[in-house]
């Protein structure tokens, strides 16, 4: 199977869906020339400015236009250049897009996908390095996808564009230039189905986004120490594949949950609560969470590395559980 980069996989998904459905269009800041991480590079050459265009720096308007267009039957895919800027359009996402189908008794569909990259990019500091996945999992009416590989980035985005519900599609900046196998033929990745990247009998690691690759690195090191871990990627946070998570934890009896966002109020806390509610008596050790420290992301690379989770911190958490 060929290998392409994560950014190329996202671009392929956009192009294929735009060819398939003339209602799909893409816009945002710097998308015409693909300056924002090269994801949209070249789309304007094929589809023109009627379907690919740049916008002013006004996130409220970017998403507001998408909500209106979706209500009228279009399938907009706006880009918010950094997820740190999603708070600028929270009202449009959380009070309009997420609720209008419910408030209209199903008469209005909101088939829109808000794409936005999150996480570290290397010294982008406090206002351009955040991971805000958890914020949006708390909003009924939104679906939230966090692809960890080029394969899932393409397959999940195609599924999202065809969905009649609003989807927040949160990519990872640090993964954009990472290659991986992606089929040339048509495929979709369903929402709500987790993926197991590696199987082991001792500990389950539930890893989100970029933390999947960090967890796989940790698993390689731990295997040399005789510790076998499962690395499970939920792929979508809403809907969440709780069955796959519970089934895996039942087999290992130990679990570490890893995310790039802060621990306090994070997705890991929700997953831990589900495990505790359903199968607490089947655990042989406490649930462990590995996440960013509760502090803004520093500019200094040394401090950035200190604040964010990585393979070493994940491996340490696993070793700690094995002591029980």
What does the model show?
- The chain is built from twelve helices and 14 strands.
- It has helices at about 5-20, 45, 60-70, 90-95, 100-105, 135, 150-160, 210-225, 240-250, 265-280, 300-305, 310-320, and strands at about 5, 25-30, 50-55, 75-80, 115-120, 145, 165-170, 180, 195-200, 205, 230-235, 235-240, 255-260, 290.
- The longest helix is centred in the N-terminal third of the chain and has 15 residues, at about 5-20.
- It is globular.
- The model has no long low-confidence stretch (mean pLDDT about 95).
Largest sheet: 5 strands, mixed
**Secondary-structure-derived class:** alpha/beta
H/E element sequence: EHEHEHEHHEHEHEEEEHEEHEHEHH
Beta-strand percentage? 15-25%
Number of strands: 14
What is the total number of structural domains?
2
| Count of DSSP-assigned helices | 12
Q: Class of the largest domain in CATH?
A: Alpha Beta
Which overall shape is indicated by the principal axes computed on the Cα atoms? globular
Radius of gyration: 19 Å
> What strand order characterises the main sheet?
9-11-10-13-14
CATH homologous superfamily label of the largest domain = Thiamin diphosphate (ThDP)-binding fold, Pyr/PP domains
Which stretches of 5+ consecutive residues score pLDDT under 50?
Answer: none
> What is the CATH topology descriptor of the largest domain?
Rossmann fold
Q: Assign a percent range to the helix content.
A: 25-40%
């Amino acid at each position: 199977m060929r290998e392409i980069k994560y950014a190329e996989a996202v671009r392929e998904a956009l192009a294929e869906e735009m060819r398939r459905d003339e209602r799909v269009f893409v816009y945002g800041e710097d998308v015409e020339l693909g300056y924002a991480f090269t994801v949209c590079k070249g789309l304007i050459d094929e589809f023109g400015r009627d379907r690919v265009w740049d916008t002013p720096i006004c996130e409220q308007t970017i998403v507001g236009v998408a909500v209106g267009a979706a209500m009228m039957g279009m399938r907009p895919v706006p880009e918010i250049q950094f997820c740190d800027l999603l708070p600028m359009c929270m009202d449009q996402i959380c009070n309009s897009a997420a609720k209008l189908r419910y408030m209209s008794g199903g008469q209005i569909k909101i088939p829109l996908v808000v794409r936005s990259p999150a996480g570290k990019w290397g010294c982008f500091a406090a206002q351009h390095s955040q991971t805000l996945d958890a914020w949006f999992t708390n909003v009924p009416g939104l679906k939230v996808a966090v692809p960890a590989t080029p394969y899932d980035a393409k397959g999940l985005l195609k599924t999202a564009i065809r969905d009649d519900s609003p989807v927040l599609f949160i990519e990872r900046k640090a993964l954009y230039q990472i290659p991986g196998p992606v089929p040339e033929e048509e495929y979709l990745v369903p929402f709500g189905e987790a993926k197991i990247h590696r199987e082991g009998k001792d500990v389950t690691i539930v890893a989100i986004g970029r933390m999947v690759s960090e967890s796989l690195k940790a698993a390689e090191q731990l295997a040399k120490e005789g510790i076998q871990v499962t690395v499970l990627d939920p792929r979508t946070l809403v809907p969440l594949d709780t069955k796959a998570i519970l089934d895996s934890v039942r087999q290992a009896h130990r679990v570490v949950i890893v995310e790039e966002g802060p621990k306090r109020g994070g997705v890991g806390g929700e997953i831990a609560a589900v495990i505790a509610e359903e199968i607490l008596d089947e655990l042989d050790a406490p649930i462990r969470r590995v996440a960013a420290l509760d502090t803004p992301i520093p500019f200094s690379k040394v401090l950035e590395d200190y604040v964010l989770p990585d393979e070493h911190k994940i491996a340490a958490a696993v070793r700690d559980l094995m002591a029980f």
